[in-house]
């Protein structure tokens, strides 16, 4: 399997408005692929097609093909699809009624990653370490997420997603709502995960993209403007629009 | 896109619930229509145009209870509006913050008090009070008006039942009106303030905006009152007598059923007559509830624009 | 001219306050008289008010309301599981698939039960349960109470489930949960306080029902029955029967019972308000 994710000629309409216009994209396994662009370009929508969370939006019409790990996402059961894909949302949403421990453990147990207490403990620790949150919460695993800061909650969400041992990780502007210090920590954690998962991350900040991306897609108004290896695009954008975006003028 | 297998199974798991709830309705219609059939076949239209209850002789006519139900409910809504409107205005216009919350909670509390409690109080205190201070004076001085033309003896009458039921639905109607008031976008209130309107003028304007909602609350209150049983049985006097005087004892359909259903099985047509009367009340309440809710919904949609 | 406007405004405020006071007066009077008369009865009867059975009509002894008290709880508590099972599943269905025809049907039916007069429900349950069983029973009463409680329980459970922010649905889907797991492991726990409040209010309302139970439980008050297949009595039914008799002692008991009922109702009301204050979502 050459690509972890392949998107071919994807068109998406929400309430008859053309939101995604003939998008095509290939993402190699174990890389960080960044989808960047100005606000409102359809980046989040594109991300949510990959794990079919787009199903939750009413009045949609889709055409085109999206393959995740070789399977067409529109032809398989979405609940099964989502077991291989973890997601971190723009606004952190750890389950408020579960402890820090159980927020992560439930993801592991549900997906068969671990069953008994000992294995669960191990996975929880592993996930928190990968999310760079272990040291800060190791003594209060049975406390609830409302005691954590925004940045910590987001890393908790990352740990929860990792506990599924997914093949693919989708990150929707994960640092948008947290402070710069925590944002950097989160970015570090993300970069360190490349060996375990394929990462697709959405951001509106070209600087963040430059820091973490192996490959990028620039989207504007629902259409792909330019895409390719990060090094090439950041140094030699072939499109005036891309150049403007990278300079921060858009 | 494929309809998920999980979703299909999920939906199927609700078939039992849907089945139970629908079959309740079906059973209901079957039981009531089949049980009413006998008496309607036997008595025809006379069942609803005459006023007799004589199971021994198997003669029945439920005109008095039907009219009594409507009269009492009408009085109830009238009284209730009379009290609910000022209460609603007080809560929405003049009270703020904690006081308002406490007040609303008190009204909410009143609204949930079991009607049997209202019945006890009405029997022992309201009825005598109404007889001595309202019914007797009205009869004495305005007895030439047909409504007041009979002498209130016991204090149990359609009038009493109407007032008692009316008092009991005040919290209900107040809550509908207050909730509707809250739905009125604040821009209207701000507009009133902007043109320097006083409290009184603002209230007048907002009330006129809320007219459909108030009408809806009256209709829903009427439906509520029509279905009310315990207060009615205890205060209405339980008489099949039909007269224009509201100070005379009378009947409502629910009071009739409550008083006679247990023994109705001993006779041939009694049960069937009661089922038929129940159907009448049922249809009336359903239609009124439907109408009231529709008016309310339509108004809600219009007002939020 | 503007002086008249001011005066009229002040008169208006006065009128509103006055009429509101008059509106509340009967209700306050009711609560006070129930309290006074009820306390008199219970004080005279002592603790036996809650443990004895009602006395014969001409009696100086007040006796008690034990059969009705126990019967009220048994009938209402038996109705709760039925109500919750039906209302909660209907609510889940309407939250997950609001536009599905099955869901819409259940929604309309559940809400329209609210317009049925309670005495009609009693007649229905009589034909449905009492006649086949050939006896009155607490079970019949429980069925009747469930039918009455269904609309309110359904709408408030729906409301509770809908109040859970959409983002948690996305979170649970994103870790591979299906709908049932999402509802049971995430939605219901998050909405638990609202659900508990709904159940408490349903309980309070059911305890106060009179007409609903008229032809179902049998008004059996010469002994305490715990078996739900046996006839029993409830407090509102006792009050209803006793106040329509001419016997003084029965009227006294009615006041006492009314106070007990009022007390239970207010206690639940206050509990609910306390829980709700903690919920500030």
CATH class descriptor of chain A: Alpha Beta
Strand content of chain A: 25-35%
What separation lies between the terminal Cα atoms of chain B?
Answer: 36 Å
Shape of chain B from CA axes? Answer: flat
Q: What is the overall number of helices of chain B?
A: 13
User: What kind of oligomer do you see?
Assistant: heterotrimer
Number of E-state strands of chain B: 2
- The structural domain count of chain B equals 1
Q: Return the CATH class of chain B.
A: Mainly Alpha
In CATH, the topology of chain B is named MetI-like fold
CATH second-level architecture of chain B: Orthogonal Bundle
- C-alpha-based Rg of chain B, rounded: 23 Å
CATH homologous superfamily annotation of chain B: MetI-like
CATH architecture of chain A: 3-Layer(aba) Sandwich
User: Tell me, what's the shape of chain A?
Assistant: globular
Largest chain interface and its two residue counts? B-C, 77 and 80 residues
What attributes characterize this protein structure?
heterotrimer, A: alpha/beta, four-stranded antiparallel sheet, B: 305 residues, mainly alpha, MetI-like fold, two-stranded antiparallel sheet, 13 helices
Question: Please, could you describe this protein's structure?
Answer:
- The complex is a heterotrimer of chains A (250), B (305) and C (281).
- With 250 residues, chain A is of the alpha/beta class.
- Chain A has one domain: P-loop containing nucleotide triphosphate hydrolases (Rossmann fold), CATH 3.40.50.300.
- Chain A has 10 helices and 10 strands.
- In chain A, the strands form 2 sheets. A 6-stranded mixed β-sheet of chain A has the order 6-7-8-3-9-10, with helices on both faces.
- In chain A, a hairpin with a 2-residue loop joins strand 1 and strand 2 (17-27).
- Chain A is globular.
- Chain B is mainly α and 305 residues long.
- Chain B has a single domain (34-304), classed as MetI-like fold (Orthogonal Bundle).
- Chain B is built from 13 helices and 2 strands.
- Chain B has helices at 5-12, 15-43, 46-49, 63-94, 97-112, 115-142, 158-183, 186-194, 199-209, 211-227, 230-235, 253-264, 270-304, and strands spanning 51-54, 59-62.
- In chain B, a hairpin with a 4-residue loop joins strand 1 (51-54) and strand 2 (59-62).
- In chain B, 47% of the residues are buried.
- Chain C is an all-alpha fold and 281 residues long.
- The longest helix of chain C is centred in the N-terminal third of the chain and has 44 residues, at 2-45.
- The N and C termini of chain C lie far apart (49 Å).
- The mean pLDDT of chain C is 93.
- Chains in contact: A-B, A-C, B-C.
- At the B-C interface, helix 1, helix 2, helix 4, helix 5 and helix 6 of B face helix 1, helix 2, helix 3, helix 4 and helix 8 of C.
- Chain C: It is a multi-pass membrane protein.
- Chain C: It is found in: Cell membrane; Membrane.
- Chain C: The chain crosses the membrane at residues 12-36, 69-93, 113-133, 139-161, 182-204, 253-276.
- Chain C: Its main location: membrane.
């Amino acid at each position: 399997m050459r690509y972890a994710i392949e998107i071919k000629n994807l068109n998406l309409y929400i309430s008859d408005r053309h939101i995604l216009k003939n998008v095509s994209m290939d993402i190699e396994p174990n890389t960080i692929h960044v989808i960047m662009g100005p606000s409102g370009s359809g980046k989040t929508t594109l991300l949510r097609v990959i794990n079919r969370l787009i199903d939750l939006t009413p009045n949609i019409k889709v055409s085109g093909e999206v393959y995740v790990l070789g399977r067409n996402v529109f032809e398989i059961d979405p609940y099964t699809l989502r077991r291989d894909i973890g997601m971190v949302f723009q606004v952190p949403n750890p389950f408020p009624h579960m402890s820090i421990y159980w927020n992560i453990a439930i993801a592991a147990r549900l997906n068969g990653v671990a069953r008994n207490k000992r294995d669960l403990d191990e996975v929880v620790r592993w996930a928190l370490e990968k999310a760079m949150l272990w040291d800060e919460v190791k003594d209060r695993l049975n406390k609830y997420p409302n005691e954590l800061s925004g940045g910590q909650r987001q890393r908790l969400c990352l740990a929860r997603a990792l506990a599924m041992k997914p093949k693919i990780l989708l990150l929707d502007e994960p640092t948008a709502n947290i402070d710069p210090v925590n944002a950097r920590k989160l970015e570090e954690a993300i970069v360190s995960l490349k060996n375990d998962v394929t990462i697709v991350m959405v951001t509106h900040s070209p600087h963040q993209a430059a820091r973490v991306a192996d490959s990028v897609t620039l989207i504007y108004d629902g259409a792909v403007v330019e895409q390719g290896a990060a090094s090439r695009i950041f140094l030699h954008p072939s499109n005036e629009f891309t150049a403007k975006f990278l300079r921060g003028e858009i | 896109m494929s309809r998920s297998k999980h979703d299909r199974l999920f939906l199927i798991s609700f078939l039992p619930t849907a089945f139970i709830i629908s079959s309740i309705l079906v059973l209901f219609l079957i039981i009531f229509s089949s049980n009413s059939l006998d008496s309607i076949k036997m008595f025809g239209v006379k069942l609803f145009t005459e006023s007799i209850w004589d199971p021994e002789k198997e003669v029945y006519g439920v005109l008095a209870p039907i009219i009594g139900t409507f009269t009492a409910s009408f009085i109830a809504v009238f009284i209730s509006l009379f009290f609910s409107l000022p209460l609603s205005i007080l809560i929405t216009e003049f009270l703020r913050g904690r006081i308002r919350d406490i007040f609303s909670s008190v009204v909410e509390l009143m609204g949930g008090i079991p009607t049997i409690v209202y019945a006890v109080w009405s029997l022992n205190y309201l009825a005598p009070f109404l007889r001595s201070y309202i019914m007797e004076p009205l009869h004495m001085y305005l007895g030439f008006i047909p409504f007041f033309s009979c002498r209130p003896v016991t204090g149990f009458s359609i009038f009493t039942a109407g007032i008692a039921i009316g008092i009991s639905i005040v919290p209900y109607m107040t809550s509908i009106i207050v909730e509707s008031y809250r739905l009125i976008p604040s821009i209207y209130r701000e507009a009133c303030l902007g043109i320097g309107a006083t409290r009184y003028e603002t209230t007048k304007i907002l009330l006129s905006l809320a007219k459909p909602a108030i009408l809806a609350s009256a209709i829903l209150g009427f439906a509520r009152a029509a279905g009310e049983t315990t207060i009615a049985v205890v205060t209405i006097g339980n008489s099949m007598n039909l007269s224009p005087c509201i100070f005379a004892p009378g009947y409502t359909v629910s009071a009739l059923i409550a008083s006679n259903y247990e023994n109705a099985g001993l006779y041939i047509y009694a049960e069937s007559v009661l089922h038929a009367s129940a159907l009448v009340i049922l249809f009336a309440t359903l239609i009124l509830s439907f109408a009231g809710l529709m008016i309310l919904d339509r108004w809600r949609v219009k007002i939020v624009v | 001219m503007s002086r008249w406007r001011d005066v009229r405004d002040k008169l208006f405020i006065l009128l509103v306050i006055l009429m509101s006071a008059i509106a509340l007066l009967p209700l306050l009077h009711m609560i006070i008289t129930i309290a006074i008369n009820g306390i008199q009865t219970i004080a005279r009867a002592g603790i036996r008010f809650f443990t004895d059975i009602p006395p014969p009509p001409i009696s100086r002894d007040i006796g008690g309301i034990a059969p009705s008290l126990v019967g009220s709880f048994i009938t209402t508590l038996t109705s709760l599981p039925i109500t919750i099972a039906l209302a909660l599943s209907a609510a889940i269905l309407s939250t997950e698939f609001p536009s599905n025809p099955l869901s819409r049907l259940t929604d309309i039916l559940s809400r329209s039960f609210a317009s049925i007069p309670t005495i009609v429900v009693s007649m229905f349950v009589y034909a449905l349960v009492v006649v086949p069983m050939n006896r009155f029973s607490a079970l019949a009463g429980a069925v009747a109470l469930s039918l009455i409680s269904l609309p309110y329980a359904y709408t408030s459970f729906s409301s509770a489930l809908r109040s859970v922010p959409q983002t948690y649905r996305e979170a649970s889907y994103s870790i591979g949960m299906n709908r049932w797991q999402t509802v049971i492991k995430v939605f219901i726990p998050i909405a638990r306080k609202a659900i508990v409040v709904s159940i408490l209010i349903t309980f309070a309302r059911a305890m106060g029902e009179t007409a609903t139970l008229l032809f179902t439980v049998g008004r059996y008050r010469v002994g305490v029955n715990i078996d739900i297949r046996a006839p029993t009595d409830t407090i509102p039914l006792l009050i209803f029967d006793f106040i329509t008799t001419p016997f003084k002692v029965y009227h006294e008991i009615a006041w006492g019972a009314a106070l007990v009922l009022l007390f239970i109702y207010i206690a639940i009301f206050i509990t609910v308000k306390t829980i709700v204050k903690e919920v500030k979502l």
